[in-house]
Design goal:
elongated, single chain, mainly alpha, about 65% helix
């Protein structure tokens, strides 16, 4: 699902000149960062100390 949302964001980028799209992309980017941080907390680390 994360990849699908990233694809949607990429498809909307050419329309970022429109304020509503620009605002959506900014909100989307903030939400994406939050999701990635939550996923990083959930996914266990591998024995080497790097994410699996």
């Amino acid at each position: 699902m994360v990849q699908q949302l990233d694809g949607l964001s990429r498809r909307m980028e050419p329309h970022a000149g429109y304020r509503p799209v620009r605002e959506y992309l900014a909100d989307f980017d903030d939400a994406r960062r939050a999701r990635m941080l939550l996923l990083a907390d959930i996914i266990p680390s591998s024995p080497g100390g790097t994410p699996a």
